[in-house]
Amino acid sequence: MKLGIVGNGMIVHTALDALQHISDITLEAICVRPNSLETGLQLKDNYSIKKVFTSYEEFLNDADIDFVYIGIINSLHFDYAYQALMAGKNVILEKPMCPEYDSTYKLSCLALEKNLFLFEAVTFLHASFFKEIQSLLPRIGNVKLVQCNFSKYSSRYSDYIKGIVHPVFDPQQYGGTLLDINVYNINFVAALLGLPRQVHYYANHGANGVDTSGILLLEYDGFIASCASAKDSSSPGFMMIQGDKGYMAVYGNPNHLEMLEVSLEDTFYKKDLRDSKNRMIDEFEDFLHIYQQRDWQKMKHYLDISIMVSQIISNARQGNILPHC
Question: What is the mean pLDDT of each run of 10 residues along the chain (325 residues)?
């Protein structure tokens, strides 16, 4: 895989650290804004990236790049991914794939039409603990309740309450907790249980209307899932699924997982999930394997999850569920 990187924010630094451990992915180029050229040059030297671009058009015209990783603000996801797909590049797009369902739908259909790979970067979906939960899910019996909470006081919130608004708290830039950290909770529920029949979102709003914390309720036939998240306060994180024959729980937040606990009728165990390795290694290795094997079915599986999550988000924000691709 010959990868080009777009962006130079914190998530890009984490991705670059992870990519140092995967020898079959080569870093061909990085594209940054003209006023971030100095940072781009530093990243080039620090991570042995071959080229630096400040023009996205020139970046996409580089024949040495076959995959593009996009780690920029939410409001630019669709435009940058669309241009990359139209240029014949495979795409890894940071979560959320797109803030609006119709944009996710359009990207997914374009990728399938052009026989290109399109992935959304949601780390834990590619971790071994999540595959373990998927395999054990039938053993918990009828699902009765799902609870998720990912709440972390944002490093940008202090500025926000002073009137300094960064993109993560700007509704015009698709900021807010629903489109940021609650996306992890929604992925957990949707990947395991599919699309709900109703969605209700209750949020605390800041001065500019952005949701600084909130609870998303997903109604399924026979049970309810609650997805709580906050950027204006903190609490211990967890993801739990309860059935009439047992439960499974993951403690910690998606960026710093701590423990898996499984309690079934004839089984109980705990597994330490703390790991010193970069949390993004598993997903990049999975993307690489899917690409090398040309496993379109598995790519479509992950794309279907992205579509469901986008549908849920659109319902929460606008009150409409749209049909599958």
Answer: 96 96 97 96 96 98 98 95 98 94 96 98 95 96 98 96 95 94 97 96 95 97 97 97 98 92 95 91 97 97 96 82 40
Q: Is the peptide bond before 96 cis (omega within 30 degrees of 0)?
A: yes
- What is the torsion angle, in degrees rounded to the nearest 10, for the CA atoms of residue 302, residue 28, residue 293 and residue 283? -40
Helix (H) / strand (E) element for 288: namely: helix 281-293
Find out whether 14 and 283 touch, Cβ atoms under 8 Å.
no
For 179, half-sphere exposure in the C-beta direction (CA atoms, 13 angstrom radius) is 24
d(CA 156, CA 164): 9
Residue among 106, 116, 250, 133 at smallest CA distance from 191: 133
Largest CA distance in the chain: 60
> What whole-number distance in Å separates Cα of residue 315 and Cα of residue 100?
10
SS3 119: strand
CA atoms within 13 A on the CB side of 228: 15
Neighbouring C-alpha atoms within 13 Å toward the C-beta of 307: 16
Q: How far is CA 49 from the centre of its chain?
A: 24
Q: What is the pTM of this model?
A: 0.93
Sheet containing 118-121: order of strands: 51-53, 26-31, 2-6, 67-70, 90-94, 118-121
- Please state the separation of Cα 233 from the chain's center in Å: 21
d(CA 97, CA 309) in angstroms, rounded, equals 9
